[in-house]
Specification:
The complex is a heterodimer of chains A (116) and B (113).
Chain A: E1 3-5, E2 10-14, E3 19-21, E4 24-26, E5 33-39, E6 46-52, E7 59-61, E8 64-69, E9 74-79, E10 88-95, E11 104-106, E12 110-115
Parallel strand pairs in A: 2-12
Antiparallel strand pairs in A: 1-4, 3-9, 5-6, 5-10, 7-8, 8-9, 10-11, 10-12
Chain B: E1 5-7, E2 10-13, E3 19-24, E4 31-37, E5 43-50, E6 53-57, E7 65-68, E8 75-79, E9 88-95, E10 103-104, E11 108-112
Parallel strand pairs in B: 2-11
Antiparallel strand pairs in B: 1-3, 3-8, 4-5, 4-9, 5-6, 7-8, 9-10, 9-11
Classes of the chains: A mainly beta (116), B mainly beta (113).
């Protein structure tokens, strides 16, 4: 069955520290998509990245980077030189496009607090 | 950039009342979804909608819930008789070719008192 585990409930770091948010997923399909979303205090879901199961290249976007490892079923997210504005809840999600209606299965989220 | 628009942003309703949450998907999108997030918890799938019918629904989506596209542009979620536990953020989403993922609206926070 599909499952997304974000074991870190809350992380606190001091500004400028690097932080990694973990995401482990379970799926029965060989084709799937993984996502990260940011949810600031205002409540909306801000799309950060989409990765398909055939693309294991790591990605960097500014201070953000993602490490996708199929061997360990993980899709971890690193923020380099964290800033107070990064404080939010971060959700990892999984979608199996060819097994149904492409619904997203979200993890329970990791609350990141960046202290000035 | 095109957006999924949800109205209202916040709605307060009395327990037992009917409530309709409204969404305007992106115009060329064909697939529509509702998700729910109880405060402090994860985002949960409620229902998906394609070709004017429900394609999948979760166990949360019981007979109290219904969805429709009344005029080909809006996409609504109706809760017939609200309960306290329906208090949550409700997100609408729409998409084109499903493997690409889809766009979420900014949510409607429903408070049942």
């Amino acid at each position: 069955a599909q499952k997304v585990t974000q074991a870190q409930t809350e992380i606190s770091v001091v500004e400028k520290e690097d932080v990694t948010l973990d995401c482990v997923y379970e799926t029965r399909d060989t084709t799937y998509y993984l996502f990260w979303y940011k949810q600031p205090p205002s409540g909306e879901l801000v799309f950060l990245i989409r990765r398909n199961s055939f693309d294991e290249q790591n990605e960097i976007s500014g201070r953000y980077s993602w490490n996708f490892q199929k061997s360990t079923s993980s899709f971890n997210f690193t923020i380099t030189a964290s800033q107070v504005v990064d404080s939010a809840v971060y959700f990892c999600a999984l979608s199996e496009p060819f097994s149904g209606t492409y619904k997203y299965i979200f993890g329970t989220g990791t609350r990141l607090k960046v202290l000035a | 950039e095109p957006e999924v628009t949800q109205t209202p942003s916040h709605q307060v309703t009395q327990m037992g009342q009917e409530v309709i949450l409204r969404c305007v998907p992106i115009s060329n999108h064909l697939y529509f979804y509702w998700y729910r997030q109880i405060l402090g918890q994860k985002v949960e799938f409620l229902v998906s909608f394609y070709n004017n019918e429900i394609s999948e629904k979760s166990e949360i989506f019981d007979d109290q819930f219904s969805v429709e596209r009344p005029d080909g542009s809006n996409f609504t979620l109706k809760i017939r008789s609200t309960k306290l536990e329906d208090s949550a953020m409700y997100f609408c989403a729409s998409g084109t070719f499903r493997p690409d993922g889809y766009t979420f609206g900014s949510g409607t926070r429903l408070t049942v008192v």
